[in-house]
Amino acid sequence: MENISLAKHKIKILLLEGLHPSSVETLKAQGYNNIETLKTSLPENELIEKIKDVHFIGIRSRTDLNANVLKHAQKLIAVGCFCIGTNQVDLVAAKEKGIAVFNAPFSNTRSVAELVLGEILLLIRGIPEKSANAHRGVWQKSAIGSFEARGKTLGIIGYGHIGTQLGIMAENIGMRVQFFDIENKLTLGNASQVASLDKLLSTSDVISLHVPETASTQNMMGEKQLSKMKQGAILINASRGTVVDLNALTDALKSKHIGGAAIDVFPVEPKSNDEEFISPLRGLDNVILTPHVGGSTQEAQENIGIEVAGKLAKYSDNGSTLSAVNVPEVSLPEHTGRSRILHIHKNQPGVLTKINEAFAKHNINIAAQYLQTDEKIGYVVIDVETDDSNTAFDELKLIEGTVKTRLLH
Ligand SMILES: NC(=O)C1=CN([C@@H]2O[C@H](COP(=O)(O)OP(=O)(O)OC[C@H]3O[C@@H](n4cnc5c(N)ncnc54)[C@H](O)[C@@H]3O)[C@@H](O)[C@H]2O)C=CC1
Ligand SMILES: O=C(O)C(=O)COP(=O)(O)O
């Protein structure tokens, strides 16, 4: 555990996976200059070495921040996922160490929806196959198996930020939109929610997956589910690689039960652009294979850089955990003229009493106090006069159940 009060230039920030320069610019504008950037993710052993003395880390979807790596992250204050998915981080292990995790829940959603819309239009015409043939010198001019998207039914699995945008765009080109979601959702446009996955599968011409990686979405499209899709239907997955059984999909494509597919995410993805991409889908003509680029547009990456770097800087500067995904959310005002102590503790009886006793013992006046808890941890933020702050900080560090404390001036 580290209990810290640090000058900004001592705060070490490591940014991996080629984040957009807007991330560094945003941090520098807030006074953070001790920043190392790398173009790729790191293998576990190198990540462990690097993370030991880092206070903030920025990653995308390829960096595996598992419990073993986090065990070595003795100084880590927060993780910024410069993407939507946070499945690459062990959120529970991070929480238990008092490490806040932030992401960018919206910034690349439009980019994913646009890519999927384009793929629908191409696949429904059999264009990837015709293009592959043309590259081989084969002139496949034919309307057989080629359709308009207008009037066809799009089935969206996971009607969240991406699924809803895709639905609206698809309606604009005349598609009928239906969706399956485990939650009851507000339907946009003329979309309709169907009660079961099976119903969606058996009544859609195109199926597109937009669910997060969770236990319930693991292999949710396996042999059985694929067999329930309409003959010749199209499958698109730009969510997570663990959601579709690719061997089963390969069989379904080879038997022509599935007419085409677009796959952007894979169970195992190369860690860098220098590694070979291995997949059973390679060589199948009516399959669009993309290297996890659903959210990789200039617009999305620039906005994500600003958004997540801003959240890290804010958490560092004033303790605000607004929109953190694994610790209680506290939105905090400035603490101008005073010092602020941040105290993350195990949610066990007696911690707050002990904090109040410690302050009373030294006659320390609490100018403002904010508290949020969840079932595992509590996050208390206390503003005090700067003259009292070191004493208060020293006392809080000693309280049983303390996970992490920081002092901000
Ligand atoms: N290919 C890429 O580059 C990108 C991929 N993604 C992936 O897309 C996923 C979805 O993104 P958003 O739409 O922003 O997420 P979101 O959280 O807004 O929506 C996800 C929806 O899936 C639903 N859901 C969860 N489990 C389900 C299940 N078992 N069956 C049916 N519905 C279920 C949720 O209720 C929610 O409505 C992300 O979690 C991420 O993994 C996101 C951005 C870029
Ligand atoms: O936002 C997400 O969840 C994505 O999948 C995009 O990941 P990336 O930033 O391209 O590694």
List keywords for this structure.
409 residues; alpha/beta; Rossmann fold; Alpha-Beta Plaits; 3 domains; 7-stranded parallel beta sheet; 5-stranded mixed beta sheet; binds 1,4-dihydronicotinamide adenine dinucleotide
Structural commentary:
Keywords: Amino-acid biosynthesis, NAD, Oxidoreductase, Serine biosynthesis. One of its GO terms (biological process) is L-serine biosynthetic process. Pathway: Amino-acid biosynthesis; L-serine biosynthesis; L-serine from 3-phospho-D-glycerate: step 1/3. Belongs to the D-isomer specific 2-hydroxyacid dehydrogenase family. With 409 residues, this protein is α/β, with parallel strands linked by helices. The chain has 3 domains: 1-103 and 297-327, NAD(P)-binding Rossmann-like Domain (Rossmann fold, 3-Layer(aba) Sandwich), CATH 3.40.50; 109-289, 3-Layer(aba) Sandwich (Rossmann fold); 328-408, ACT domain (Alpha-Beta Plaits, 2-Layer Sandwich). The chain is built from 13 helices and 17 strands. Helix 1 packs parallel to helix 11 (298-318) and helix 5 packs across helix 7 (161-172). It is elongated. The structure holds 1,4-dihydronicotinamide adenine dinucleotide and 2-oxo-3-(phosphonooxy)propanoic acid.
Concise structural overview:
Helix content is 32%, strand content 20%. The protein has 13 helices and 17 strands.
Number of domains: 3
Tell me about the biggest sheet? Answer: 7 strands, parallel
Number of helices: 13
**What is the CATH architecture term of the largest domain?**
3-Layer(aba) Sandwich
* Rounded mean pLDDT score: 96
Low-pLDDT ranges: none
Going by helix content, strand content and strand pairing, the class is alpha/beta
Number of strands: 17
The order of strands across the largest sheet is 9-8-7-10-11-12-13
Report the sheet-strand fraction. Answer: 15-25%
Radius of gyration: 25 Å
Q: Estimate the helix proportion, in percent.
A: 25-40%
Which ligands are bound?
Answer: 1,4-dihydronicotinamide adenine dinucleotide, 2-oxo-3-(phosphonooxy)propanoic acid
CATH fold name of the largest domain? Rossmann fold
CATH superfamily of the largest domain: NAD(P)-binding Rossmann-like Domain
GO molecular function: (S)-2-hydroxyglutarate dehydrogenase activity; NAD binding; phosphoglycerate dehydrogenase activity
Pathway: Amino-acid biosynthesis; L-serine biosynthesis; L-serine from 3-phospho-D-glycerate: step 1/3
Function: Catalyzes the reversible oxidation of 3-phospho-D-glycerate to 3-phosphonooxypyruvate, the first step of the phosphorylated L-serine biosynthesis pathway. Also catalyzes the reversible oxidation of 2-hydroxyglutarate to 2-oxoglutarate.
Family: Belongs to the D-isomer specific 2-hydroxyacid dehydrogenase family.
